[in-house]
Amino acid sequence: MTDIKNKTAFVTGAASGIGFALAEGLLKRGAKVMLVDIDAEGLKAAQEKLGTENTASIVCDVADPDAVKAAASATIEAFGNVHLIFNNAGVSLPGRPGRIAAEDWKWIIDINVLGVAYGCESFIPHIMGHGEGGHIINTASTAGHVTGVGMAPYFASKFAVVGYSEALAQELAEANIGVSCLCPTWVKSNIHNTPDKAPVAGQYRDKFKASKAYETIKGYIENGMDADVYAELCLKAVEANRLHVFNDPEARVAVEMRGKALLSDYDANLKDLGL
Ligand SMILES: NC(=O)c1ccc[n+]([C@@H]2O[C@H](COP(=O)([O-])OP(=O)(O)OC[C@H]3O[C@@H](n4cnc5c(N)ncnc54)[C@H](O)[C@@H]3O)[C@@H](O)[C@H]2O)c1
User: Fold this and answer.
1) Mean pLDDT throughout 18-24?
2) HSE on the CB side for 70, CA within 13 Å?
3) pTM of the model
4) Cα angle at 16 between 77 and 60, to 5 degrees?
């Protein structure tokens, strides 16, 4: 989508962090923006900061497919044709394997994976129908390309978003719908506090907040890239129709190492097969 001016965008997770910065960047480029978030108070504050010209807001839980459909209809009703769909809302979840409750697994997959899919499913027929083209922007993470210790469900959810977005890019190119997959590393936001809302892990929030792991992640986030700088990079990538949006030189090394490790196993398997 080379020209964002006068287009309409739907942004989930718009009350905070990357979503708020994306909304701000879109408005500066002359787009109209529907702000979407589960946090009613945060959303109200976000709309107050951004002003009411060219914005509207709706409280919506992206894990609820009917609520996402209703938010999509409200956006079309408010602004007419919609072109840019930012499926950005997401949560994180700490936990070691063998100690993660089924309810918490379901919670993070419902929001981080199905929330993205519901946004796409709700808008793709509309964008194909109006014929003006569009762009879908799904927020994954560098955690959708490389893994670490202590957040396996988060990594699983973000690998799913990367795979889904790469598949969508192939599926939708002919329909004049571009796809970008945001893969941030350490951007200033409130993501380190989101485990508070997990059904089971959330009950241990005081213990988690007193932990070294929390302090470490909080430190990385607080010293991360400014959200408006990352949002600007994302909007440039949308205008260039670029698929992946990375921002961190150190994570590049990890991505490269993963590629090499994959090929090393691949070659060993082929050798075992005598191929
Ligand atoms: N900040 C980083 O360093 C970083 C790194 C990698 C990926 N991400 C991803 O970026 C995206 C945005 O996160 P952020 O860092 O701006 O964090 P944030 O916590 O500041 O913002 C997330 C927003 O999503 C909203 N949200 C949470 N659950 C929701 C739901 N069920 N329905 C609707 N809205 C919901 C929250 O209320 C919040 O406003 C997430 O998908 C996150 O996983 C962030």
Assistant:
1) 98
2) 11
3) 0.98
4) 40
Ligand 1 centroid to 89 CA: how many Å?
Answer: 5
Query: Tens digits of per-residue pLDDT, 126-142?
Result: 999 999 999 999 999 99
Domains of the chain: 8-249 (3.40.50.720)
pLDDT exceeds cutoff 80 at 249: yes
Q: What is the mean pLDDT of the chain?
A: 97
Give me ligand 1 centre to Cα 95, in Å: 18
Backbone angles phi, psi at 95, to 5 degrees: 155, 145
* pLDDT exceeds cutoff 80 at 1: no
Q: Match 């082929």 to its residue by tokens.
A: 270
How do beta strands 177-182 and 55-59 pair?
Answer: unpaired
Model confidence pLDDT, tens digit, residues 102-122: 999 999 999 999 999 999 999
Q: Is 230 a catalytic residue?
A: no
Atom 23, ligand 1: which residue's CA is nearest?
A: 13
Distance 61 CA to ligand 1 centre (A): 12
pLDDT value at residue 218: 95
